[in-house]
Amino acid sequence: MPRFVDTHCHLALEPLSTDVEAVLARAREAGVGACLSIGTTLEDSRANVELARRHPMVHAAVGVHPNESEAVTDATWAALDTLAQDPSVVAIGEVGLDFYRDRASEDAQRRTLSRCLALAQRRGLPVVLHCRNAYDELLQLLRREAQAPVRGLVHCASGPAAFIRGALDLGLSISFAGNVTFPNAAALRELVPLVPDERLLIETDAPFLAPQPVRGKPNEPAYVAHTAAFLAQQRGTTVEALGALTTRNAEHLFKFPDRRR
What we know:
This protein has helices spanning 20-29, 42-54, 74-83, 106-123, 135-145, 161-170, 186-189, 224-235, 239-254; strands spanning 4-9, 32-37, 58-62, 89-98, 127-132, 152-154, 173-176, 200-202. It is an alpha/beta fold. The chain has one domain (4-254): Alpha-Beta Barrel (TIM Barrel). Strands 1-2-3-4-5-6-7-8 form an 8-stranded parallel beta sheet. The model has no long low-confidence stretch (mean pLDDT 96).
């Protein structure tokens, strides 16, 4: 069975959080060897670290989603810095810019992202980047404030081709989620061939964006297999080869520790 890594899920969110053991069992049955559970707030980040401590196949990312930027305090940063030192934490995220919604001002988002980048650099961790309707702005901020090449990924790939090329030029990897399988996602599928093999990753963004074969259900890590099969077809390869490729890429980027002992 192919082995996959779900590089972006939210196991601390309902309905996944109500029965994580069953969710992970189904993931293993589908060939998923590891999951990266993503933080969006301090509380969410703490919950992900606790989950990762209990489940060796789960790794944690800690951070502040751009839409949560207005609530950040100095105490938040101190707590995130402490969490980032936990052995289960392999990334800072999800962080970035989201100018689609107005839950946080653009200035607050930029300040939060800047501090998240600094935290990632200080702790030697990659970043998991969210970007929506802020493509030029994100690239400009990264060029100005991040140390090139930037270690991390753009999650749930979207935006114009120029954004994807710019992210790749900075050194970032690109991850595709279940929405690439949607019938109306022709523009998104045009991004798939832009990503070289060594920068390609896959994710679910569970419980959101269930891929087309299970669309309408809550997404979960097991369903990353559907996205992998679709991308394999798009790239003219086998699902086994794509699974192996993206697993190697994820392990190289996140340097997953072996916590089975």
